[in-house]
Amino acid sequence: MTDIPKTKYGAAVCLFKGEEVYLSQRQWNQLHFSNMWQFVHGYVKGDYERYADAAVRIVRNETGIVLPVQRLCYIKSFMLGSEFYYTYFVHLNKDETPTAPTPEQLALHGVFVSFPLVTAVNLLLVPGLEKMLRKAMTTLTRTKLPVIEEERNSWTAMCEYD
Fold first, then answer.
1. Phi-psi group of 35: left, alpha or beta (phi > 0 → left; psi -120 to 50 → alpha; rest → beta)
2. Domains of the chain
3. Residue 81 CA, distance from chain mean position
4. Nearest 5°: CA angle at 34, between 32 and 39?
5. Mind listing the pLDDT tens digit for each residue in 117-129?
6. pLDDT exceeds cutoff 80 at 109
7. What's the predicted TM-score (pTM) here?
8. Most buried residue among 1, 2, 91, 138 by CB atoms closer than 10 A?
9. Which residue, among 107, 84, 92, 90, has the nearest Cα to 30 in the 3D structure?
10. If you average pLDDT over residues 58-68, what whole number do you get?
11. CA distance between the termini of the chain
């Protein structure tokens, strides 16, 4: 009898500042997607943690940035192998920069690097991320939003994806 892999549920968060995106590179020795660039991500705890709450916790744990859940912008959900992720975008304020808060986090997720969106879509990305970044680029161009502003209303308007 073969074992059917159990689905793991998680949240992924794409961190933007202006028209740049923060990504970290997976370690070369990781079993899946080694050396590929990724969003901040992690698993939902237990059966009762909401995806948005998991996203806030994961961002805090992996980057040191404390966010209220209201700043999350849901973009879409997707399957990656046996893992199911809800994906969010967050527009960072000028004083917010992701860092690995502990040596363990640094070893696990590496350093966060800021890339212009037009550069990021051409990196070796974890499957599924290129499409999301291209959608963000299209939305930025289509709406001509001044995303550098720190007004929540501008960012909320950008979150109205199909």
1. left
2. 8-158 (3.90.79.10)
3. 18
4. 90
5. 889 999 988 888 8
6. no
7. 0.78
8. 91
9. 107
10. 93
11. 42
Distance between CA atoms of residues 131 and 133, nearest Å: 6
Q: Count other C-beta atoms under 10 Å from residue 84's C-beta.
A: 15
Amino acid letter for position 16: F
Residue 140: its pLDDT value, please? 60
Place of tokens 């794409």: 14
Average pLDDT for the chain: 79
Q: Which amino acid is at 63?
A: T
Q: Estimate to the nearest angstrom the gap between the alpha carbon of 119 and the chain centroid.
A: 16
Which of 16, 36, 11 lies closest to 115, judged by CA? 16
CB 14 within 8 A of CB 89: yes
Residue 128 phi, psi (nearest 5) = 95, -20
Tell me the β-bridge partners of 93: none
pLDDT for the residue 10: 93
Q: Which two tokens stand for residue 51?
A: 């995806």
How far is 52 from 57, CA to CA, in rounded Å? Answer: 9
